Amino acid sequence: MTPHVEPDPQAGAAVKAADRAHVFHSWSAQGLIDPLAVAGAEGSYFWDYDGNRYLDFTSGLVYTNIGYQHPKVVAAIQEQAGKLATFAPAFAVDVRSEAARLIAERTPGDLDKIFFTNGGAEAVENAVRMARLHTGRTKLLSAYRSYHGATSTAINLTGDPRRWASDTASAGVVHFWAPFLYRSPFYATTEAEESARALQHLEDTIAFEGPATIAAIILETVPGTAGIMTPPPGYLAGVREICDKYGIVFILDEVMAGFGRTGKWFASEHFDVVPDLMTFAKGVNSGYVPLGGVAINAEIAATFDKRPYPGGLTYSGHPLACAAAVATLRVMEDEKVVEHAAHIGENVLGPGLRELAERHPSVGEVRGMGVFWALDLVKNKETREPLVPYNAAGEANAPMAAFGAAAKKNGLWPFINMNRTHAVPACNVSEAEAKEGLAALDAALAVADEHTA
User: Fold this and answer.
1) Which of 87, 91, 312, 429 has the smallest number of Cβ neighbours within 10 A?
2) How far apart are CA 274 and CA 266, in angstroms?
3) DSSP per-residue letters across 108-124
């Protein structure tokens, strides 16, 4: 695939100048960043105004599950704009109803009621509000290695350092350690030990916090930005049992892992677990128009049959977003995108990444499934010391910065967080594109290897 526009550095410079003058970027020190000016994108690629093309191994922010500019989804948005571009959420609108129906068909168990939001963080905010109102309790439990969004409660639920600046310890959130055998906080040596000890730790935390005070436990089914740590067998089922034992609402955050990313419609299917509430966003419509939501089980939905739910959003179930969702879900069904993601993970990315780990001293562990993978980069495979310190910045982060620069030089746009690089291409990435990405990673990892001991 080649860029659909001729290189135009002057136009790119104008875009960057306007950006620098007026756009305030998230998660950034504004004077220290230099955003790439993007001229276009299609499928698994995007390109800049200088004509440089990049294979996107980030899927945007892990949301372009069917790639950029899929013609059927673009056409559906255009058609909906001509028919009914917007309408208030209190009305029944055909495309909104159809989007909810198609999502409910794919969610596990009786998660058949859909509350629409504009994105994942708002989905989390509303899910925990529902849990608190349903139980009459206030406290929330979440894992340290997690990300749940940047709104008020969602950022407090988040376990990574992005929480620190906004954490007032007043949101009623308690954090606990979820399982992660490679860097086990429980001194476990097997997955079975890690699962059992993590569950005991969770139940101990509940006991000391007071079971009758806890409204919900929220977990990313497979933690995303925090490192794609697939939970060991039995863990999520154990959390389900603990929640049932104490009357706690179990919330699974599938914002990143959902809609084909792990090779199933939802990651919970891998573990045969049905939560009480499930949050979603991102891949529901490949991010073409902002959309998220909460899938609600029958018991919690019944809480609000005669009692108003005290929450709402101006753009809840926006027709353009719902049209994009309907088209995306139909494309995924027709083109067997979920099955393809499973195939790519099992036969291309998984084996390819493990082969890289065998050859590169900087790769400590490979984790993932489907098109949802992480490479844990280390200074030393024996000690498992991370290639850069936790939350490193500036000079301390130089090895990862050098790795990222090498990947981009080889035409790969990498997803980097702390000492990890994630391989998270579109769910419909071709075998050839996946292998192209592996080759670029191979070359970039040679740079990371220079910083090993």
Assistant:
1) 91
2) 10
3) STT--EEEEESSHHHHH
CA dist., res. 441 & res. 52, Å (int): 18
CA distance 440 to 235: 35
- Residue closest to 270 by CA, chosen among 228, 227, 222, 337: 222
Cα 254 → chain centroid: 7
Spatial distance between the Cα atoms of 436 and 200, rounded to a whole number of angstroms = 43
3-state class (DSSP) for residue 293: strand
* Cα→Cα distances 288→41, 54, 72, 185, 421, Å: 12, 19, 12, 39, 25
Q: How many CB atoms lie within 10 A of CB 42?
A: 16
Query: Using CB atoms within 10 A of its CB, is residue 358 exposed (0-12), middle (13-18) or buried (19+)?
Result: exposed
Pairing of strands 363-369, 372-380: antiparallel
Taking the C-alpha atoms of residue 118 and residue 287, their distance in angstroms, rounded to an integer, is 11
CB 282 within 8 A of CB 61: yes
Q: Is 254 exposed, middle or buried (0-12, 13-18, 19+ CB in 10 A)?
A: buried
What is the value of pTM for the model shown? Answer: 0.96
User: Tens place of pLDDT for every residue, the chain, 453 residues?
Assistant: 445 668 999 999 999 999 999 999 999 999 999 999 999 999 999 999 999 999 999 999 999 999 999 999 999 999 999 999 999 999 999 999 999 999 999 999 999 999 999 999 999 999 999 999 999 999 999 999 999 999 999 999 999 999 999 888 777 999 999 999 999 999 999 999 999 999 999 999 999 999 999 999 999 999 999 999 999 999 999 999 999 999 999 999 999 999 999 999 999 999 999 999 999 999 999 999 999 999 999 999 999 999 999 999 999 999 999 999 999 999 999 999 999 999 999 999 999 999 999 999 999 999 999 999 999 999 999 999 999 999 999 999 999 999 999 999 999 999 999 999 999 999 999 999 999 999 999 999 999 999 998
Task: Annotate 344-371 with DSSP letters as a single string.
Answer: HIIIIIHHHHHHHHHH-TTEEEEEEETT
- The DSSP annotation for 371-414 comes to TEEEEEEEEETTTTEESS-TT--GGGGHHHHHHHHHHHHTTEE-
- Residue 333: enclosing H or E segment and its boundaries? helix 319-334
Question: Do 77 and 262 form a contact (C-beta atoms < 8 A)?
Answer: no
C-alpha distances in Å from residue 52, one per residue of 2, 6, 61, 263, 314: 10, 11, 20, 31, 39
| Sequence letter at residue 139 | K
